[in-house]
Amino acid sequence: MNRCDCSNPPGGSATCEDDQLAVCVVEDGEAHTFCIRLPGDELTAPDASRDAKKYFAVMYPGALKRALAAALHAHEQAAREPSLRNLSMANFVLSIVKAEPRMPQEPISPEDAELLASGEHRDGDRVIRFRVPPDRGFTADLPSMVGSGDMIDPAAQIESERTQLPAEPA
After folding, report:
1. What Å distances lie between residue 71 and 57, 137, 164, CA to CA?
2. In this structure, are residues 64 and 14 in contact, taking their beta carbons and an 8 Å threshold?
3. Would you list the DSSP string of 94-108?
4. Mean per-residue pLDDT for 51-63?
5. DSSP states along 118-161
6. Which of 9, 22, 56, 119 could share a disulfide with 16, CB 3.0–4.6 Å?
7. What is the pTM of this model?
8. Whole-number pLDDT of residue 153
9. For residue 89, which of 98, 76, 170 has the smallest C-alpha distance?
10. Spatial CA neighbour of 20 closest among 152, 130, 154, 169
């Protein structure tokens, strides 16, 4: 199980399946818990979009729906590209936690990497705590996604990695 404790008061927790993002949002003294599947591959990506849309419908009715739907669709597509999975997953989680559309290849700032590592985001009076499934392990890759204090261009990094691969035998 993947579990995320809510802030106190009121306390409580989101207890989810091993492959789901556990989210607890505390607002106006009430805890709202969500279990959101992550777009780890092309089979789970549609479920991830569906879970995320339910979350936004409850927590942010009417807000950014078109832009978020477009971003979620892009994450479904990126789940098919293994070299983008961790970056896409990090941006998917940031979309959920910050309620802003983020594309799969969007650079991760040092501040966003810190937010992902901390498992908590504050937005006014709203406290959002989350826990990424431990087996997803993308948080271990955060330093390589950020660079030395500067934002990176993921597409350039992927292209660089591809050009460094050994040539296939003839």
Report:
1. 15, 22, 30
2. no
3. HHHHHTS---TTPPP
4. 75
5. HTEEEETTEEEEEE--GGG-GGGGHHHHH-SSS---HHHHHHHH
6. 22
7. 0.75
8. 46
9. 76
10. 130
